[in-house]
Structures are given as C-alpha cells and as structure tokens.
Amino acid sequence: MIEELIPPPAATAHAFTDHRAAVAALYPQEAAAVAQAVAKRRREYATVRMCARRALNGLGVPAAPLVAGRRGAPRWPAGVVGSMTHCAGYRAAAVGRSADFLGLGIDAEPNEPLPDDLLEFVSLPGERARLRDLADAAPEVRWDRLLFSAKEAVFKTWYPLTERELDFTEAELDFAPDTGSFSARLLVPGVDAGGRHLDGFTGRWLCREGLVVTAIALEQVAGH
Ligand SMILES: CC(C)(COP(=O)(O)OP(=O)(O)OC[C@H]1O[C@@H](n2cnc3c(N)ncnc32)[C@H](O)[C@@H]1OP(=O)(O)O)[C@@H](O)C(=O)NCCC(=O)NCCS
To answer: Are both 124 and 85 inside the same structural domain?
Structure first.
C-alpha cells in the first residue's frame, strides 16, 4: 500500500489493525498528549507512532517521541521529514531524510462516498466535472473521497513547508487514472523551498482493499 506510493530512499510502515502493545509503548510526552482522548484515538495515535518508529528504524534513525508541533504537524527528529495518517482499517507513516526530501504528505480514507454536501465544500467546479468523467470510466473508485484524501496529502506536505493554512478550494487537483498519479496546482502564491519555486505538487494514489491512499514525496533537487 503506502510503500508503493513513496519512493526510496524514504521508508514507510503500515498496520491494518491497532496493536495492543502500542499504547503501553508510548513515550510519556506522547501518552500525556492523548491522556484525555477516547480509547480509539489513543490506539490509533499509538499504532501510527509504532509505524513511524518502524519507518525511522528503516532509515537508521533512532526511535524518538513524536508529538504535535504547530497546528498538529508532527515534530520529527532533526534531519527527518515525514507524515502520518490513520483511518478506519489503516494506519501508515512515511519518513525520509531532509537531505533527500523537502517534504512528505500521506493520507488514507475508506473508499466510500463522502458525506452529503462535503464534496461541494472541498472541491472546485472543474474538479467536480472531471470526477463525473472519472466515475463513468472507473466506478469502483470513490473519486470524491480520493479527491478529499489527495487534498489532505497536499495540506500535510504544504503546512510543514510554509506554516500557512490552505483551503480545500486553494488547490486544483487533476487525476491520471491510468498511471495512478495526480497533480495539484496551487491557486495561492507558491513557496520558495529547496532552491526552487513550488506552485504545485505531484503525487500518487491507489484504491485497494476498501481504501484510497494518496501520497506526495517532494524530492530535493541536486545541489540543495
Ligand atoms: C490536518 C489534517 C490534514 C489531517 O487529516 P485527517 O484526514 O483529518 O487525519 P489523518 O488521520 O489522515 O492525519 C492525521 C495526522 O496528520 C498529521 N497532521 C496533523 N496536522 C498536520 C499539519 N498541520 N501538517 C502536517 N501533518 C499534520 C498528524 O500526524 C496527525 O496524526 P496525529 O494527530 O496522530 O499525529 C486535516 O484535519 C485538516 O486540518 N484539513 C484541513 C486543511 C486541508 O486539508 N486543506 C486542503 C488543502 S488542498
């Protein structure tokens, strides 16, 4: 799943169920962050961190507490960028060295219709028109949910780079159904990072086992 969407030398790990031992294995500062949360939130928080530490191990980076920084963005160990996601039936993490990646953003959602009215809120008219064509060609994919997921992956890539909000209607997405890729064109001023101007992102997606999974891996360019 996630490992198919994120290129090496990044590392990924995932879980389809929560691990009982994960909550007990939290660092004290992580346990404190979810002490008041419901049990389901504690389990998904702990399991995705177990995945993240497994992925860090794959990079050769020692395990470390992973608590939220500004606006919920996880604070990764020095020299590491990464992203985490959890939804019903799936938890995943992706990490990479900042020498190799400017940022990573991943998201997973159940392959189910978006709740009523949400599509209107998270999409642009042109996107909705393209989703209708995609649904005619491949009705097994919930394209409205995939659009939502890809926009969340965009935000998880965007925010750590900019510390700026980005509304759902401030990026226009386009999916290539055959190659499993997508592009996101920013409709707000872009950002200078890693020696280039970013006015959009490209990502990859898949739909399998009742899930849609999306990922953006923003690679460094040589010399930066
Ligand atoms: C932050 C947000 C993207 C999380 O997505 P989600 O589908 O609700 O939840 P997921 O389970 O997939 O991801 C949650 C994880 O995202 C990460 N995350 C949270 N805030 C983040 C941020 N500002 N930047 C990067 N990652 C963030 C965290 O690791 C979090 O897990 P944790 O709380 O256990 O650490 C979403 O709640 C949100 O605020 N969206 C509005 C902005 C947006 O998406 N705009 C679209 C622009 S086109």
So the answer is: no
161 shares a domain with 96: no
Give the domain range for residue 95: 2-106
- Please tell me whether residue 218 adopts helix, strand or coil conformation: strand
The pTM of this model reads 0.97
Residue 76 shares a structural domain with residue 111: no
From 149, 156, 162, 172, the mutation candidate for ligand 1 (largest count of ligand atoms within 8 A of CB) is 156
Residue position matching structure tokens 């019903």: 88
Query: What separation in Å is there between the alpha carbon of 75 and the centre of ligand 1?
Result: 13
Tell me, using a 6 A CB cutoff, whether residue 72 lines ligand 1. Answer: yes
For the beta carbon of residue 166, count every other beta carbon within 10 angstroms: 18
- In this predicted model, what pLDDT tens digit does every residue of 128-160 receive, in sequence order? 999 999 999 999 999 999 999 999 999 999 999
Q: Is the CB of 76 under 6 A from ligand 1?
A: no
Rounded to whole angstroms, the Cα distance separating 29 from 5 reads: 31
Q: How far apart are CA 201 and CA 41, in angstroms?
A: 30
CATH of the domain at 17: 3.90.470.20
